[in-house]
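// run 5 | inverse folding | seed 20
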């Protein structure tokens, strides 16, 4: 009986926090299927600027990171790992994976499927209804993966020296946030901020 972990998300973009979760799943399961959602379509705001819904993987007013590009970044991090399979799609597609037959691309027969999510209460609760859609032969479990990874002293000291950058990041800037990663990359791409680029390097291996 196969023991398969399912990791759905937007990964906007993949960073060290995501990599920690993935490596943890690789060490515990026979296979990990990562579902990577595509960004929302760009829409026009009232001020005429273009954005995607919820800011998913949008680095400036024109640039989005596709699911294919996010998958390529993951592969740069982990190399050619035969235990990991990447699929485009997020929560809906991961649910369909549990319900479809193996012939239609679903989870293998008589598998144990472990849905991985963050350990925050809002993350664990929204995944519980997966059980309504699984096949009867599939045993479903949940793994609340720790999301407590913190930035190092060098990163925090550099932020302290550059308060104008710190003000533009998440209030919990000690934690890893994909939105901070995006903002730092955007600051470098649009403003040529070399300090922002230096800070962004703390998000990757």
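// decoded
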């Amino acid at each position: 009986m196969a023991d398969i972990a399912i990791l759905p998300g937007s990964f906007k973009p993949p960073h060290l926090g995501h990599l920690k979760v993935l490596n943890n799943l690789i060490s515990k399961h026979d296979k990990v299927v990562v579902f990577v959602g595509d960004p929302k379509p760009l829409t026009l705001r009232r001020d005429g600027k273009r954005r995607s819904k919820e800011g998913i993987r949008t680095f400036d007013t024109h640039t989005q990171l596709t699911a294919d590009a996010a998958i390529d970044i993951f592969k740069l991090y982990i190399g050619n790992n035969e235990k990991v399979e990447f699929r485009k799609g997020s929560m809906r597609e991961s649910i369909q994976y549990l319900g479809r037959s193996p012939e239609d691309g679903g989870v293998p027969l008589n598998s144990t499927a472990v849905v991985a999510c963050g350990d925050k209460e809002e993350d664990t609760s929204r995944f519980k209804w997966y059980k309504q859609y699984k096949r009867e032969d599939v045993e479903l479990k949940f793994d609340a993966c720790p999301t407590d990874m913190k930035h190092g002293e060098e990163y925090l000291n550099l932020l302290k020296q550059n308060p104008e950058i710190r003000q533009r990041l998440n209030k919990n800037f000690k934690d890893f946030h994909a939105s901070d990663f995006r903002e730092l990359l955007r600051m470098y791409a649009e403003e040529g901020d070399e300090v922002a680029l230096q800070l962004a390097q703390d998000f990757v291996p």
